[in-house]
Amino acid sequence: MQFQLPPGFYTSDTIASLALILTLMAVRVIAGRALRRRDNLTETVARRWSANVRNVLVLVAVIGLIMIWAPQLRTFALSLTAVAVAIVVATKELILCFSGAAFRTFTRAFSVGDIVEIGSSKGEVVDLNLLALRLREFDERDGSIAPTGRTLILPYSLLFSSPARVLPHAATGLTHSFTMTFDPDVDIFALRHELEDVAARALDGAGELAGPGIGSSPPQSRLRFRTSDIGKYRVEVSIAGCTQPRQAENAVACAIGSFVHSRIGSADKEQSSAASGA
Length: 278
What we know:
Blueprint: H1 12-37, H2 43-68, H3 70-90, H4 92-107, E1 115-118, E2 121-128, E3 132-141, E4 144-155, E5 164-166, H5 169-172, E6 175-182, H6 192-204, E7 220-227, E8 233-240, H7 245-277
Antiparallel strand pairs: 1-2, 1-5, 2-3, 3-4, 6-8, 7-8
């Protein structure tokens, strides 16, 4: 079996490199022999000169090899640059996630327990790590904020593309609002205090609507009375501090609707009695 060098080995750069190395080795051998022949030099001085010559020859070898292989080194450097750029592009989101985690930590933008809105996502922060945050998703419709039961995982890179808003509901609980419309058959404005008592009793009768995750205080209702553009009566109900807003809305709406319609029925009976007596 015969050993053969690859065809690419016989290049001008390879021959020049071998010639440079052999020349420098010959110079070192000659310089070493010349120093040993000097009788007027002490051993310490001879070693010093030998080390200096060796260092100079190594420096010349490095500079010479760099000059010989400069085109190939330039190509290699461009390849490394391309690889570095590809790595940065491939890990851009990961780098942004780490940067976003540092940004949130240093600015103290939000923490676990806050209700935040990032882009189109909204929810309560339940966990934070180095790459992402986990939200208990909330949905907002008609001024109401209610949990959807879903969990969102948002990467910190979103902090650099979307504003992060901390909502004021984190300390006071969730607020749910809805509107009830009635015909002007009964004066609900005169029944304001009675309707407020009816709504409060409806919430008190549904104790499961307030959960430990929101707070120890029971849900509270607030009623606002308005009229529509066509002259109908509107009751805007806001319920704060409830964990199950749909059930709370159903309880309050049924109680208020039943009370109003009972008053309408009583008014119709009185009108019928008055008409019969006349």
